[in-house]
Specification:
Blueprint lengths: L21 E12 L6 E12 L4 E9 L5 E12 L6 E4 L2 E7 L6 E12 L12 E13 L15 E15 L2 E17 L7 E8 L4 E7 L14 E7 L2 E2 L5 E10 L4 E8 L1
Antiparallel strand pairs: 1-2, 1-10, 2-3, 3-4, 4-5, 4-7, 5-6, 6-7, 7-8, 8-9, 9-10, 11-12, 11-16, 13-15, 14-15, 15-16
Length: 271
């Protein structure tokens, strides 16, 4: 990381004077082990973004796990609520809010929405016909350690960072209720057009010693436009691709990783 982060690098703030093409995004990913056997039970990934100059935003959340349908909640054109600096989102069938108790500290992520369960998660890039599912999230992210970069030179220019977190709360899907405790990351990215350029891959995982590991770089693409698996990703537990703002195809997956020194579970995100 280049320098200690200030509140401007984390909290939404009033940035209505930003250029029309400038946007920012907050991401929250988590892995929840089964309390009985320690194996991965659920994964949750949430992203909320906004274009301050237009007062519009986007939201996507996915709930995944082994041997279960992937459940998506996606809206790529939302009116921002909660004032100029808020991260509350509302639309028909969706309410979501994201609040910090302190900059670079504890965050709460909540949602009540109707999502769709897809037996084939890649249908999310098509017409996304599936089974309607109510989804509820009430999750808390508490940072462990200091944020990591890279970070740009200004909170109003371009950059990104992330931090490892302990995560706990409740996940509701259909008639299921899961009281969960696990680990994850949260971060913020910002800049012109889209927060991260296409062809970028980021993967994080936590190893058996409780250390967060991270790898990022250019993403190889195969003939079908989908990236092949490359180290440190060993295998995919569940795919969770989404169609993001501007119809951007975003590949996400709950993954098992091993870089030769440590192994564990985490998330892959690729544009």
């Amino acid at each position: 990381m280049n320098a200690p982060l200030s509140a401007d690098f984390d909290l939404p703030g009033d940035r209505r004077g930003a250029p029309a093409h400038w946007c920012e995004q907050w991401s929250f990913d988590a892995v929840f082990p089964d309390p009985d056997d320690g194996e991965v039970m659920l994964g949750v990934a949430v992203s909320v973004g906004r274009r301050p100059a237009t007062g519009r935003g986007w939201y996507h959340a996915v709930v995944v796990g082994p041997r279960r349908a992937t459940v998506f909640v996606v809206d790529t054109d939302l009116v921002l609520g909660g004032g100029a600096g808020g991260l509350e989102l509302r639309s028909p069938g969706l309410w979501a809010d994201h609040n910090a108790s302190a900059a670079l500290g504890h965050w709460t992520v909540a949602a009540e929405a109707f999502g769709v369960a897809l037996d084939d998660p890649w249908d999310a890039w098509g017409r996304a016909f599936g089974t309607p599912q109510p989804v509820g999230l009430d999750l808390e992210w508490d940072p462990v350690g200091a944020p990591d970069g890279p970070v740009g030179g200004s909170a109003d220019d371009a950059g990104s960072w992330w931090v490892g977190c302990e995560v706990h709360g409740v996940v509701l899907v259909g008639d299921e209720r899961h009281d969960v405790t696990g680990y994850g990351t949260r971060g913020r990215s910002w800049g012109p057009a889209v927060p991260v350029a296409e062809g970028h891959r980021r993967v994080w995982w936590r190893d058996g010693a409780g250390r967060w590991r991270h790898a990022a770089g250019a993403a190889p693409i195969d003939a079908d436009g989908v990236a092949p698996l490359v180290p440190p990703v060993r295998s995919v537990t569940a795919w969770a691709p989404v169609l993001g703002a501007g119809d951007q195809r975003l590949i996400q997956a709950l993954v098992a990783c091993d870089d030769g020194e440590s192994a564990g579970a985490g998330w892959l995100v690729q544009r």
